[in-house]
Structure formats: C-alpha cells, structure tokens
Amino acid sequence: MSNDFEQRGSSPWGNSPGNDNGNGTGGRTSSTDLDEIIRGLQEKIKKFLPGGNASGNKPIGLVLLILFFIWLASGLYRVLPDEQGIVLRFGKYVKTTQPGLNYHLPIPIETVQTPKVTKVNRIDIGFRAEKDSGFATGGGVADIPQESLMLTGDENIVNVDFSVFWVIKDARKFLFEIQDPEETIKAAAETAMREIIARSRIQPVLTEGRGAIEIETQNIMQTILDAYNSGVQVTQVQTQKADPPDQVIDAFRDVQAARADMERAKNEAEAYANDVIPRARGEAAKIMQAAEAYKQKVVAASEGEASRFLSIYKEYAKAKEVTQERMYLETMEKVLADIDKVIIEKNAGSGVVPYLPLPELGKPKATN
Description:
By secondary structure, the chain is an alpha+beta fold. The protein has helices spanning 4-7, 31-46, 58-73, 130-133, 145-148, 171-176, 181-198, 202-206, 210-227, 249-318, 320-336, 358-361; strands spanning 76-79, 85-89, 92-97, 100-103, 110-113, 121-125, 127-129, 141-143, 149-151, 157-168, 232-243.
C-alpha cells in the first residue's frame, strides 16, 4: 500500500474497488490505453538505440534500456504461504493471487498488497496489557470499565473481560469493504456480548453458563461481520473474567458463600432422606408381609376348624349316640393325658384296680 488513495481503493479517475466490472480493467484504464502507453515508450527508446535517430547517444540509450528492464523486473513479487496477493491497478482492485512467485505491471501502474490470511489475530475487550494501555509497564493488566461493565437480564451489573480471535478469510473485502477492520471487529464483539448478557441472569454468567455465552457471542459477531462484507472469520471468543463490580464483590462473595452453605445443607438433607426413606419403606413392607402371612394363617386355621366341625356334625347327624360317645372319649383323652390318675371300677370288689403304668416302663430311669 504505497499511498492513501491506494489504501482506500480509489483511482485517479474516482473509481473504487466496488465498481469493478469483473474483467480486471475497470474505469477508463483499458488494455488498449495500456498498449498505447507501452508503444509510445518503445518509440522513445528506439531513438537512443543503435540505428535510431540519435545514434550519437548510445551510452545514454544503453543506460535507459537497462533502467527500463529493471523497471519491468520490479513487477516480480512473492506471496508467502500464509498470505494472499491483492493486485491494484492505479489504486483499483484487479485480482487476487495465490502463494508463489507472481508478476504485476511495475509501479506506478500496478501495486500489490500481501495481507497474512492464516495469522490468528487477537482483540482484548474490557482489559489491556499495561504496556498497550499507556500505563506503567509493569507487566500487569489494566481494566477498561467502559468496555467491561454490562447489565444482566435480572438487572445486575457484571464485569466481563473477554478476547476475540479472528483471521482474514477474504483479503479483498478485508482491505476495501471496511475502513477500520480492528475497530469494526471490536465494536461487533462488544455489541454481541452486551446483547447476550442482557438476556442472561447473573448466576449463569458467573458460573457454568460461560461456554454457551461464548458460542452465542461468536455466532452473533460472525453474522454482523458477514453483513458488513468484512472478510473476517471469528475463530473463538474466550471469556477471561466475569465478576461483579469491585465495589460490591465482597458482599457478593458473602452471598455466594451463603448459597453454597444452603446447597450443602440441602444436599445433606437429601442424602439423609435417601437413607431413611428406603429403610422405612423396607420396614413397612416387612410389617405388611408379616401381617398378610398372619392373616392367611388365621384364615386357613379357621377354615380348617370350620371344615372339621362340619364334618363332625355330619357324622353326628348320622349316629348321634356313637358320635357323642366318641367325642366324650376324645375329650377325656385330651384332658387326662398329662395328669396322674387312678382308675376305680365300680363293680370291683374292693373298688380299686391295681394300675400298671406300662408307659413308664419304657422311660429311662433317672440317676442320682
């Protein structure tokens, strides 16, 4: 970029890069005019060459010829792998050249600019390194409150410092479509971040919501810059700091500590509930199962007794005397089974019948 009108992309005839018709000629400068200029130069040079009209000035002619070829050779230029070549003809965009050795018409006809298109550039918003901000060079960071202070959706003030990383994706648009690329990118970044913060509550901004805010800010920035035809690609938005203002940060930290205590107490209560409730439910289930088993046992026993009573009643109805006798004997057997007894026969002479305890004979004798 040799002068101001080349930076602005304007030509001596008032044409700008945006008015290019696509054939690389543009405006009043055409290939025919260029051929006429070169042809006129050739006619003038011939006068100084051997056999020309001024044969006495051969040394001057050779010098001019050498200078002419040097001037032609000055159009050679090299584009590095991380650059793009932007060729301007009288300050008007002509073409874009790729990395390698290229040629353009010598100055002042054509010039070339080679911006680096793979270099990752960085813009800091809300803070500056002290050496960049005009303060003492102590290696620290200077805060820029007018850039970093933002209002959240729940009407709290938050201090957000962040960095934007970007590259050039279209060198022609980057050079000619926007007047001040870095200021444009900075303004777009600040606008996008303020929009996202204005829609968010303060708690996510300070804690787990930063990642989503960075992605959304990058998307909004890219939309704005594409609308400006800036030729810029935003690669990353990185939050450096998100805190309350310095004047209230101590009080805010107290609030955060109280919230942390509340969360801890809540978690402990939930853990206790998760321990007690399952055990209580298990005990309740155990009691219910035991009650159900007891119910089934009692019902089954009652049904058995009822069935037994009905079966006895049926037999009693068939033979009452026999059944009464049998019931009497069975009852007496149960009553007298576990007591000492003496059997007396009424019809016996003495009234006492000797009793031989046969069951006792089978029992082992106790030893002293």
